[in-house]
Amino acid sequence: MPSPRALAGEALSRMPWDPERRRIAECCGVDAASVLGEREQRAAPTLQASPELRRILRLAADDAQRNAQVEVGMEHVFFGMLRAGGNVQLGICHGSALEFNRFRDAVLPRVRVTEPTVERAAPSLAPAAARVVHDALALARSRHDAEAHGVHLLAIAAYPGSVVDSWITRFGGSLERLRDVIDDWLRFDNAV
Fold it and tell me: Which residues, including other chains, have CB under 8 Å from residue 159's CB and lie 6 or more apart?
């Protein structure tokens, strides 16, 4: 059975951004700087886009096509996140504390699509959307995550003045509250 010191070191290595884990590790006599240095030296795993992230991007492309756009912009990515459901949709709809019923009524026609997906060549990402996807992958890579998820994408897409910010504040939501929810999710290695 591993010692408390070994367990505290492993816990710190898994979640180095958690100050409570660092405090516990130091109380157990773990050299936190050494553990964190070793973590930084580890090779990042081969990064994959999760099925969820790929689905979000497919739904974003579908939203662009349905709206007769030749490029997938950030608003399409936003609607892709809503259509994909899961934690990303939950964070936007509830984590931001927006007025859910009004928001739901406004986005429902683009979220609850009942007819089959439009079959055309997939549009390319607009530069701003491509940059957000790139940065979401970089965030996952920097955390040594094996997959990039929708939460990584939302973490990058939810910034002041963004499409996400515009939509949630229009319905009384708070970007700061959404950022707090995202940060809590990202504190845990396997919570995304």
Answer: 165, 175
